[in-house]
Specification:
Blueprint: H1 3-10, H2 15-36, H3 43-75, H4 87-90, H5 95-121, H6 126-145, H7 159-180, H8 188-208, H9 210-215, H10 221-225, H11 227-251, H12 265-277, H13 285-305
């Protein structure tokens, strides 16, 4: 088995989107530590938390991608799919090999997650450590159960909810809490922005695959709503994401440069235009990358300038 095949199965193009919430959460934490002067003064420890959080999230994402390739592959969903090739469905990687890869990835990711938890909480916050360990295990289960098993939630239209919770709220608020051991209500505004933009990527994916998903009895939210309502849903995701980010900056305003994150919404507006004009579903494939990278750009600009 060639390394390029495993890299293809890992879907590296999805990784920038997966780490966007970590970038925003850690950026918010660094700012408030500087602003209020509480907790971690150790720069090395701060960077260790950030790096370990990034690695943990990447591990969860790769596990999810492996599980998605495996689950859709054995169910026949990827038999005639559009977009990039799936390795199990094409026979390049066997289901057994993919299952082994999933187990190894889950174990390695859990080890990194435990290291992250210990680095953030040490021996003095046992309750927090247990809570985040449970969240870590829950993330592993959620990554696998998206398409694997008879009750895979990705086949019942619940994928959007889980993406919002794990990519948005848990990623941003969770990474912030690793630094500060506190939660502020306004954190949920940028967390919601990241969550909604992450759903927008999933929604594009499901719009592109709608016809094949119907044939495979994969009842995504797009399948349930239909193409036209899915388009309206897509517009709402991006517009509400923008509004939440603007409200956060307005509430915490101190400089015009905080609005530089608006640059990231230029390609997102163009995406709305593209979706509105779209008739042929396969043409949406290139839009996934546009929205994912725009979300990553938003995260970087927001973490640097808006906090």
């Amino acid at each position: 088995m060639k390394i390029k095949h495993w890299l293809a199965a890992a879907r590296l193009r999805t990784l920038p989107l997966s780490v966007s919430g970590i970038i925003v959460g850690c950026g918010l934490a660094d700012f408030r530590q500087f602003q209020f002067g509480f907790l971690h003064a150790d720069i090395v420890e701060n960077y260790s938390i950030f790096i370990l959080a990034i690695l943990t999230t990447i591990g969860f994402q790769i596990l999810s991608n492996f599980a998605n390739d495996y689950g859709d592959g054995i169910k026949g969903t990827d038999k005639n799919r559009l977009g990039e090739q799936r390795l199990v469905a094409s026979g390049i990687i066997s289901p057994k090999q993919m299952k082994h890869a999933m187990v190894i990835t889950a174990i390695l990711t859990l080890i990194v997650a435990i290291t992250l938890i210990y680095t953030a909480f040490g021996q003095d916050n046992f309750g927090y450590s247990i809570l985040f360990l449970i969240l870590g295990i829950g993330s592993i289960v959620a990554a696998i159960k998206y398409t694997v098993g008879e009750n895979a939630y990705g086949y019942s239209g619940f994928g959007d909810i889980f993406v919002f919770l794990f990519f948005g709220w848990l990623s941003v608020v969770g990474s912030y809490f690793l630094y500060t051991k506190t939660i502020h209500w306004d954190l949920f505004l940028p967390a919601t922005t990241i969550g909604l933009l992450s759903i927008a990527v999933l929604n594009l994916n499901n719009m592109r695959d709608r016809i094949e998903d119907i044939k495979a009895n994969k009842n995504t939210l797009v399948v349930k709503m239909g193409s036209q309502k899915a388009k309206l849903y897509h517009y709402a995701l991006i517009i509400v994401a923008l509004i939440c980010a603007i409200i956060y900056v307005h509430l915490n305003y101190f400089s015009p440069k905080q609005y530089l994150f608006l640059i990231a919404f230029i390609p997102l507006v163009l995406n709305i235009v593209m979706v509105a004009r779209n008739i042929i579903h396969r043409e949406l494939d290139s839009e996934l990358k546009k929205v994912a990278l725009s979300t990553f750009l938003f995260a970087v600009l927001f973490a640097i300038f808006a906090v």
